[in-house]
Amino acid sequence: MTDTESSGSAPSRLSDHCLLHNSKDAFAARLWLIRSARHSLDVQYYIWHDDLSGSLVFDEIASAAQRGVAVRLLIDDNGIVGLDARLAALDVLPTVEVRLYNPFKMRRFRALEWLFDFGRLTSRMHSKSLTADRRATIIGGRNIGNEYFGVQAKGQFDDLDILATGPVVSQIEDVFERHWQSAATRPVAAVVGHISAKAKRHAARKGEAIAQSGEAKRYLADIEAQPLYSELQQGRVNWQSAPAHVVASMPVPDTDNEDEPTGLNELMPRSLARPTSDFILISGYFVPTDQGCAELGELRRGGVRIRVLTNSYAATDVGVVHSGYAPLREKLLQQGIELFEMPAPDDAPKRNTRKFIRSNSMRARRHSGKSLHAKVYIVDRKHLYVGSANFDPRSAHLNTELGFVIESAELAEKMADQFETASDHCYHLGLLPDGALSWTDVRDDNPVPERTEPGTNPLTRTLVRLLAKLPIERQL
After folding, report:
1. CATH classification of 256-475 is 3.30.870.10, yes or no?
2. What are the residue numbers of the active site?
3. Between residues 349 and 357, the one the model is more confident about
4. Neighbouring C-beta atoms of residue 81, cutoff 10 Å
5. Is the dihedral of CA 139, 140, 144, 150 positive or negative?
6. If we measure between CA atoms, which residue out of 371, 439, 318 comes closest to residue 142?
7. Does the pLDDT at position 257 exceed 70?
């Protein structure tokens, strides 16, 4: 990830951090931050779904605006399907401005626009932040949607955000300002054009119906009952203080970068310390490239233990990305790099028959049934990156990305412990004596290496092999 640091070298002053791993804690923190705002809210997201959580956040932002808070809302135009009317209605509030990043010109048949404007449209604003009164901010991997906040029982993402106060907040505001003023952003009214009164009424009725639904009321009650919500209200949060700085990348849409390399200098924040003994890499989308594999191998030969947690084919929500990772697994394993893959959400571990009843009750506690979406790099258990950037060429060259580099052994150890726990619920990859790949599900009562990739069939395996031959790696 080629990064532009907001303030040069890492500042000596400490910022306070609170890790938001639990999905409902993540929503509770956003709810508190919006409700506590008195002067300003600066909000940017890559995806905003037209669902329960998305509607509730819109309602909270509108309430903040009605009490006089100045709101700037910036959303990538690729992730707001069905929201033109809702955004236009929000934009007319006196203290609200809504802008769209790298917008589509066609509002209904967007897929057609990819055919003649691919070079521009492929670059997206993947950065995520929510900042109140320039005093507190939330950054990380989560977008706005039910799957990120524990609204639904199935199809959830395992993700990570950080709530922070202190010097890093002003750095986040600097990054937001650069996004807001970018030539790639446009006011929502200029993009969506005239919205009919009928469409506006429909959007309003839908939002009101969600707000009044039993599901929404139960969810909000659950969120307000979260211990973290009370701790935030009462100022009793267990903050972790540490030096931290912001890293952000902002490539210009439609800029030719085909000749740029894609090694560790691009795949990782350049200001993150280089591993000397231990490197843990957690990335929902992991496309290390041939050059990245070679450089990881050099680190391994230099004595660095390297462990990677990513999604299995059956767990990923973007199957094509798997074609950029799958062909490199053998090379990584041959170099001594340890690979762990998240199981599919519906992939139950194999149990001995006599343990059937007891193991079903254990299943709910042992495996979350989620798809990995977090992006975390832990170096020597002393330094870590948490943010929006995956370990892939898209994050390195095409998307805008945003994250924190934190110098904290305490936080790094905490995240390393979470990795250890997660890896105990995953497929462990290995090489058989004949060189073939194997997957061992350590959740099974009798774990054994298997030659067939879990959650695949001959057709999907053939498709992955075919996609891997196409020159699309830089889009993954």
Report:
1. yes
2. 126, 128, 133, 373, 375, 380
3. 349
4. 12
5. negative
6. 371
7. no
Parse the chain into domains and list their residue ranges.
4-234, 256-475
How high does pLDDT run on average in the chain?
A: 90
Residue 258 has pLDDT above 80, yes or no: no
Cα separations in angstroms, 66 against 92, 235, 413, 414: 12, 25, 43, 40
Q: Do domains 4-234 and 256-475 have the same CATH topology?
A: yes
Please check the confidence at residue 158 and state whether its pLDDT lies above 80. yes
Separation CA 30–CA 25 (nearest Å): 9
Confidence of residue 4 (pLDDT cuts 50, 70, 90): low
CA gap 162, 169 in Å, rounded: 12
Going 326 to 328 to 330 to 334, the CA torsion angle's sign is negative
Q: What is the pLDDT of residue 361?
A: 30
Say whether domain 4-234 belongs to CATH 3.30.870.10.
Answer: yes
Average pLDDT for 297-314:
96
Residue 466 CA, distance from chain mean position: 27
Name the 3-class secondary structure at 99.
Answer: strand
Distance CA 122, CA 120 (A): 6
Q: Residue 102 in contact with residue 120, Cβ under 8 Å?
A: yes
